[in-house]
Amino acid sequence: MVDSTKVPSSGQWPVEPQDDVPISKENIWIDGCFDFSHHGHAGAMLQARRLGKKLFVGIHSDEEIMDNKGPTVMTLSERVAAVNACRWSTLPVPEAPYVTSLPWISHYGCYYVVHGDDITTDSSGEDCYRYVKDAGRFLVVKRTPGISTTDLVGRMLLCTRGHFIKSIVKLLSGEEGSGSDEEKKRFGAEMKQRISDFASDESGLAAGSEVWTWTASGRNSSQANDNGSCTKLVEGKAPRPGQRIIYVDGGFDLFSSGHIEFLRLVTETEEQVGKGLGWFEEDAKKERIAKHGEDYPPAYIIAGVHDDEVINRWKGVNYPIMNIFERGLCVLQCRYVHSVVFSAPFTPTQSYLESLPYGLPNAVYHGPTAFIPLTYDPYAAVRDLGIFHQVGSHEYQGVNAGEIVQRILKSRELYEERQRVKGIKGIGEEAVKRREEMEVEAAKISNERAEKNI
What we know:
The relative contact order is 0.12. α8 (181-198) packs parallel to α12 (324-332). The protein has helices at 39-49, 62-68, 76-85, 102-107, 130-134, 149-158, 168-172, 181-198, 257-276, 282-292, 308-315, 324-332, 350-355, 380-385, 401-410, 412-421, 429-452; strands at residues 24-32, 54-59, 91-94, 110-116, 138-141, 210-216, 228-234, 244-250, 299-305, 339-342, 363-366, 388-390. The longest helix is centred in the last third of the chain and has 24 residues, at 429-452. By secondary structure, the protein is an alpha/beta fold. The model is unreliable at 220-225 (pLDDT under 50). Strands 7-6-10-9-8-11-12 form a seven-stranded mixed beta sheet. Strands 3-2-1-4-5 form a five-stranded parallel beta sheet.
């Protein structure tokens, strides 16, 4: 473990480079806890990335966060994985000091430090950014509205469902939501703009991922025999010549290291396929650059994200904790994904897969986790087509929404103290007890359904 109160010597820095590099205003530093990742974290990184050409992301240690703020939900390695997966992050720097240090940011060649428009203090109540502010090397960006770790924990413990979205299409068009017609349209337009922003490339400035919505022609998009069609929501980079089309799907609730590692392994597996086909040979690379102006990976990964109602039908309680808009943004910011389909059906039938923007994919991948209890195999049709692939076991396979909720419940008293220090009212024993009872009841119902095979 690096002692972040001291300036490391060469060879002791947590990540390369070990020697100081020239300071440039094109190198931006942002730091934080980045505890169970949400699109507010990604939104801050996007805004910071747009201010330069490289983004260095400092991640505080579990110990420093405990000393200054309270317990973390996710471990340091899980938090580093989340930051590393963000498309706009150039380099995650673990063990970064809680009070931002000029020698640390200068070592990595960063001139400016970026933070949201809120005040962050250390255990003594002093501003964590006092040194960089005094040096004139501090820039402020807007906090992403409507999302915070505190909000998400409140949903978990209070079992609220007010965050659910019935139809993402209607919400974006201003037909769904609260307020006047004018307010709904304005809110929908703001949400659509945020989706467009999150679909940007590594620079945060140019078009990147494509975004689609899928609409079922039947009444219930969770039914296996539904047909439907995709509608483009955001323009982006389409598949390039030679790329294999890969499809993955899921709820991606509380998007975390379990989801990220699955997507990384899909990418890694497809790179091995490409290697076997000569994709990475120098002549092949030169040919792609000559014909298309840039090189690109051997696989184009499309991620389908299920509706709130579909997930809740299977999991119960008040899952998903994040609604489809929030979950979609989390998937969209991930560097391993090239296209997102909102409202993807739970069962990827042949007719659905053929209705995808680029037709039947070359492969459909599924992970090793089984957070949602199933009474049938939703990938039966995919198996029959001979394009189903299972990603093997990995170190984060047990990290999912249910696991994160359990971590919160187990450390509630410590976490509530952290919130109390911030001036936030505690949830209370009754709410926690109710959540625990609902989880037990949901598990009981799931087991009964599995036994009856309904």
